[in-house]
Write a structure and sequence with these properties.
Largest interface: A-B, 31 and 25 residues
Helix content of chain B: 55-70%
Largest sheet of chain B: 2 strands, antiparallel
Low-confidence stretches of chain A: none
Order of helices and strands of chain B: HHHHHHEEHHHH
CATH architecture of the largest domain in chain A: 3-Layer(aba) Sandwich
Strand order of the largest sheet of chain B: 1-2
Number of domains of chain B: 1
Number of strands of chain A: 14
Distance between the termini of chain A: 37 Å
Radius of gyration of chain B: 21 Å
Shape of chain A: elongated
Helix content of chain A: 25-40%
Oligomer: heterodimer
CATH topology of the largest domain in chain A: Rossmann fold
Number of domains of chain A: 2
Radius of gyration of chain A: 23 Å
Distance between the termini of chain B: 25 Å
Strand content of chain B: under 5%
Bound molecules: adenosine-5'-triphosphate, magnesium ion
Shape of chain B: elongated
Structural class of chain B: mainly alpha
Largest sheet of chain A: 6 strands, mixed
Mean pLDDT of chain B: 88
Number of helices of chain A: 11
Structural class of chain A: alpha/beta
Number of helices of chain B: 10
Mean pLDDT of chain A: 90
């Protein structure tokens, strides 16, 4: 499979702070690649290097198999991006902003094309409004429009759903999947929400403090990890006794006043539930949590 | 490149601050002209007092040319401020607005983007000087009519009516060159920071300090004077000499042009390597 992004030993230092530390990344054609990490993990810093806004302290970046440093313009013709929060010329209309950016890129800026892209992101009725009158979510949408305008092969999105309402989040998710599946685009999606990435990505990496924590296909990562399942019930003492004599005993993580926390594989949840019910113990709720998510939350808490 | 310059010009002329310069000139110059219309006779008398006894002045001395000459002389410290206002914003404004992230990630080299901005800034500068010329000379001639130009330097020089216009054209051209140096300096400062205020203030500070140094007549300042670009910003006055010292004018213009190229070169050098963190 063709590598679209190949990053090796990438490091960026800000004075004495190492924001990105020896990072390796491989993104393949057609991937929706999730780039996860808590606040300050180095996601935006990495994206800034991918977009040549800042220079790496060391390491190499290849995009479309070409060295970024030498072939910058040729590469960026085929890359669209949102880097951190989308900012535009507030004193110009959404339409004019896109027209200007498109002209600089040297792409099609016909009325038809610009209106088409504004429609894609749901801003067609606000085309003529000045951007300074836009809400954050609307700017985020315009940011997406700007990233897609020149029909790039690689789309790099830095937390594109921040500030969007649930409907907007869903639309963006669908758009991302559409772009990858129907248009064969490669998507590099940074986020600090695992659940969001999980829904769309096929491969992902979690970074913290500028280095890789885990990496792989989303499926493998999710399968490899057990679920932490909380069973909520009233008769905690009786349940304790019953479970003590069974194989379930060793799956117990901890007891609460009204919960038992198990570490299970997905296909064990139903049998355990059945067993308890058969013993006459009524279950109020079952809440599964993946340990990857736990792990990630743990990182996020530390990072925050 | 043409497209890039066009876009940068469009951005400049869609901003309010751009019109401050035109508005300031458009208001100041007519006010001076009106004041001159009513008070000009006194002014002229004051100017020529010491020569009164030895000369007999005839004809319309308080004419459009004289007014334009006086205005050009009195605005050379104010116009740099109007230039700095736009120059300081050219690059830093993009940082403040966060639009660098959109702009610098386009498939166009930073060098081209910076060059386009610089050219657009130069066009603004020259338009502003042209506007000054049209208002102060054009309007002046309409209000006051033509006549001989009397210039008092070490000696008193009187230019015949048909010997003046071309001098003004060269004077405005060399004023435009001087103002372009201000633009280049403001542009350089603008590349260093993420807010337009700093570059605007720094540019003015440099100009004011240099101007003061140039004016102090003690040995130390006389030695550094040739190295202060502000010293060459009054080159336009040399056009109103008789005879004109062309060598001196050419030398001064080359020095000014050298500063423009130098400042821009440094800007390019810095900007090409700069980490865009805004
Ligand atoms: N201009 C800068 N100067 C110094 N340190 C910086 C600068 N920009 C970022 N950093 C540091 O680099 C680290 C990584 O920041 P970065 O913005 O890449 O994080 P992130 O993963 O994008 O976080 P978030 O989820 O909050 O957007 C942080 O510790 C941050 O403080
Ligand atoms: Mg970030």
């Amino acid at each position: 499979m063709q590598k679209v992004i190949e990053v090796q030993n990438l490091t960026k230092k800000f004075k004495d702070l190492t924001a990105v530390n020896n990072l390796d990344l491989n993104v393949y054609r057609g991937d929706i690649f999730g780039f996860l990490g808590p606040n300050g993990a180095g996601k935006s810093t990495t994206i800034r290097m991918l977009m040549t806004l800042i220079n790496p302290t060391s390491g190499t970046i290849k995009i479309f198999d070409k060295p970024l440093k030498q072939k910058r313009n040729e590469i960026l013709k085929k890359v669209g991006a949102i880097v951190e929060k989308p900012d535009f010329y507030g004193y110009l209309s959404a339409y004019k902003n896109l027209e200007i950016l498109g002209q600089i890129s040297g792409c099609d800026t016909s009325n038809k094309r610009i209106m088409e892209i504004l429609e894609t992101v749901g801003l067609e009725t606000r085309a003529k409004s000045k951007v300074k009158t836009f809400s954050h979510g609307m700017k985020q949408r315009l940011g997406l429009a700007q990233a897609l305008l020149h029909d790039p092969d690689l789309i790099i999105l830095d937390e594109p759903t921040t500030g969007l309402d649930p409907q907007g989040m869903k639309e963006i998710r669908e758009l991302i999947i559409h772009l990858a599946k129907e248009k064969q685009k490669t998507i590099f999606l940074s986020s600090h929400i695992l659940a969001e990435v999980e829904l769309v990505a096929n491969r992902m990496i979690i970074i913290n403090k500028g280095t890789t924590v885990v990496e792989g296909t989303v499926q493998d990562l999710l399968n490899a990890t057990n679920l932490k399942v909380t069973f909520e019930l009233d008769e905690i003492e009786r349940a304790k006794k019953i479970l003590a004599e069974t194989q379930w005993q060793k799956k117990i993580e901890s007891f609460g006043d009204y919960q038992i926390l198990f570490l299970l594989e997905k296909n064990e949840i139903a049998p355990l539930n059945k067993f308890l019910v058969e013993q006459g113990i009524l279950i109020n709720s079952i809440v599964p949590k993946r340990s990857l998510e736990e792990y990630f939350l743990h990182l996020t808490e530390k990072g925050a | 490149m043409y497209t890039l310059v066009k876009i940068e010009l469009y951005k400049i002329f869609r901003k309010w601050r751009t019109y401050i310069g035109f508005a300031a000139i458009g208001v100041m110059v007519p006010i001076i002209q009106i004041a001159m219309y009513f008070e000009g006779a006194h002014y002229l008398e004051f100017m020529t007092r010491s020569f009164k006894d030895s000369f007999v002045f005839v004809g319309n001395l308080l004419n459009g040319y004289l007014i334009a000459y006086i205005i050009l002389g009195s605005l050379t410290i104010h116009i740099p401020f109007l230039i700095a206002l736009v120059a300081g914003d050219l690059l830093a404004g993009e940082a403040t607005a966060g639009t660098y992230r959109m702009l610098i990630t386009r498939p166009v080299s930073r060098m081209k983007l910076v060059f386009a901005k610089f050219i657009a800034g130069l066009i603004y500068t020259n338009l502003l000087v042209l506007f000054l010329a049209v208002i102060s000379l054009g309007l002046g001639l309409i209000i006051f009519g033509v006549g001989e130009l009397i210039v008092i330097k070490d000696a008193i020089i009187i230019f015949a009516q048909n010997d003046i216009l071309w001098r003004f054209i060269f004077a405005y051209a060399s004023a435009a060159l001087s103002m372009s140096v201000v633009l280049a300096l403001g542009f350089l400062f603008s590349s260093l920071v993420e807010n337009a205020i700093g570059p605007i203030v720094s540019t003015m500070t440099v100009i004011i300090i240099f101007t003061i140094f140039s004016a102090i007549n003690i040995d130390f300042f006389r030695t550094v004077k040739p190295y202060l670009f502000t010293n060459y910003m009054s080159t336009w006055r040399l056009v109103f000499d008789d005879p004109i010292d062309y060598n001196e004018i050419i030398k001064n213009c080359l020095i000014l042009a050298g500063h423009i190229i130098g400042f821009f070169g440094i800007t390019l050098f810095i900007f090409k390597r700069k980490d865009i963190l805004s």
